[in-house]
Amino acid sequence: MVHRDSIISLVTRIAIVSVWIVLVWLIVTLGNRHQEVEQSSDRMIRILVWGDIFDKSVIREFEEKTGIKVQLSSYATNEELLVKLKISQGYGYDLIAPSDYAVSILRAEGLLKPLDASKMAFMSRINPFLLRQKYDPENTFSIPYEWEVFGIAFDKDFFKQHPLRSSWKMLFENPQGLYRVVMTDDLREMVRSTAQYLFGSVDDLTEEQMEQVENLLKQQHQWVEAYTSTNLDYYLISEYSPIAYSSSAYVGRRKQFAGKLGFFIPQEGGLVTIENLAIPIHGDHDDLVYEFMNFMFDAEIMARHFDLFTYFPSTPDFLTDDTRETLDPEMLKLLTMSEQEFRNLVFIKPIMPEDRMNDLWVDIKS
Amino acid sequence: MRSSWISRLPSFLLVVFTYLFLYVPLFVLVVFSFNKDPFPAPWSSFTLDWYRELWVSTELWDAFKTSCIIALSATFLSVLMGVMLVFFLMKSVRVQRILGIFYANLVVPEVVLAVGLLSMFSFLHVELGMRTLIIAHTVLGLGYVIPVVYQKYMTIDPHLIDVSMDLGATLGQTFMRIVMPLLRPALYAAGLLVFIISFDDFILSYFCAGSSAQTLSMYIYSMLRIGISPVVNALSTLLLIISSICVMLFCYYNVRSKLL
Amino acid sequence: MKNHWIQKYLPFTLGSLSLVWQALFFYVPLLCVIVLSFTGDTPYAAFQGFFSAVYVRIIVRSLGMAFLTASMCLMIGYPFAYFLVFHTHRLRNLLLFLVMLPFWTNFLLHICAWFFVLDRQGLLSYLLQKLGILSGPLMILNTYWAIIIMMVYFYLPFMILPLYTALDRFDQRLLEASLDLGATWWQTVTRVLLPLTMPGIRVGFLLVCIPAFGEFAIPEFMGGDRTMFVGSVIKHLILGAESEVAGSAFTLISSLVLVIVIGMLYLIIGRLVPSRYEKE
To answer: How far apart are CA A91 and CA B104, in angstroms?
Structure first.
């Protein structure tokens, strides 16, 4: 008798626990799985883009003007975008903003939908040398939206008394205790700029070249004050390290330090990245997406975009004569660079295998 | 101690120095939130501009709202579960031995838990967001609630329970009328503890939030990475005030719980 | 009959939720980490990469940082707690409140605060230069010591509170008795005070050491992200490189190392300081 009771008791307890587990499981997973993407209602588009590509108030203006609801998700790296799109197999989003090399990866995986040039009235206004790049030669799948260049930012006051050469040497040659530098925390940019300094604009690295890059970066650690891409101005203006790897957009945004910070593209060639707009292969509401794009490419909207984020818009006509006056001359020079100068820049595509770069990252900092 | 105040002097100095050590940075932080010039300029003039900027920032308030919701939910869930566990404890004394599983919470570095949850969630294809954060913070909370509530429960005179049962009350009635009132201060104390820990939590949120949810800690982290702006100072001052209130309440309930 | 069922199983039903929750969301994730680390190309593939000098250095460095922090917290915290327990009466609650308050504030804000103090043009630099102790600006940020200072600052309350609890329970008369019986100050401390407060010391040490081992935010901000610690590596592997297998494997390895080292430390200290009079 006793034996049977305790078995019943045990079974009941197991049942109760199982019910709990199922309940909890349901709470966690209901409506929450990757594959279950919200069914888009009629006038709505789902965009997955960088956190700082579209101003939220501009999006709200678009929503009010057209009655199209915009569902905004963001990512911080191209890798996040790639992972998300690969997992969902191109479903779930109607518009994305991949960088140059991300476009070629997505193309290869067949995750992009061809764009309809007839719906994009702004095509003719786009800066011609941004088009027809290697990652999308006919611009079938992507259209450039904004771009920025990477070079060297410096403290003007410090370098009034010390020599400043327009070269990557400023970062990669041992300053012998005179000052320290700030490097980026982005792996790809680190490797790319080092390669640029050592070998010029190469497309791929040989094993030997990779080792040279690794050794130089490990050496450089001695005279690096910090690895950051977002905290630069603190180091630059507080005289910790008067020279840093930086981007045009970053320097431009720091308007309060306008007179103090300088920026230049090294003579060996700088880096560039182009952010494009693209449509995933299973994206929906194409018409609404094109409406959105046309809205965002409007010259005035682009001017506001530039004002807020200082990324260079792909349509140069946003620059009116008035704004030209107010711009920093250095910034203006960069914005209006010639095609020749642009060809001198190199894209930040990965030229070293991921694993190796990740290991290098840990290596440098140990 | 028979020693005079002279022998106490070294430790007294140490204590004073320690308090200075703990508070001078915070003091500086608060003072500079009213400074007109941004860091690293020295003091120039008094202004409330940064507080104004704080007030207007929607991203900040979104993050604040998110943190509040998560903290409140985690607190509610973990305290509720703690209460239910006590109810179970009343019935079956053997369970006490299992309670050890909750102490592991304090022994495992938060990073490990964060990695584990992240792996588990992505393996099950669960989307990271508010829901997963609440779950994670509740686990964190359990590790604080259970020990506190259990300790308090153990201090309740078992005779009270026995007498109540003898007089004919059911387990439920005994629980609600006798145990709960005695537990209540400890529950409030534990709840406040969980709330603060969840609200301030950084590591777990950083790993498990995904791209859709942003807690206040994550917002501050991204602001710090961009650079020190006096807006952060202003925010700190406000948070200090909130924390002070919570700590005062906690101390109050802690003392009450010990008195009962 | 139904009433009987409810009577019998209601407590279990309610109580088991917390147990289920803990199992599902604490132990299963830990299991995931362990299992995941073995799912490389071969079961040991993920681990092989970490037996190099680089990673050993990182683990040792993190251990060093954790122990240094805990030791410094102990050295400052013990006399502090002692003073609080035995030499304050009316102000005690206020002082306790003040100790706990920083613990309850968002720690990222503390980092911000310390920037102000430790910066080249910050408070400490200004003071030291004014006093003539330093000839140039204070160059402490982005160094190892800035990290340690910040760590001690942050973990001090974690150490003080358990020590306070342990000392609170301690009967002061034992010290007096010991001295009266002719023992020296040193003997009293090592044979009476420390052994009886050992549980508190242990708890405090654990509460500091274990989280400190996995820190990555403090080294990132205070150290300029120039050096890698265990936490930084894990963050890099999981969030940056997105190789969860490697991340799990490294988490497992470093956790094991931590457990082993702490275990050994306990054994050693247990031999040195007898705690025969332990009562919980």
So the answer is: 41
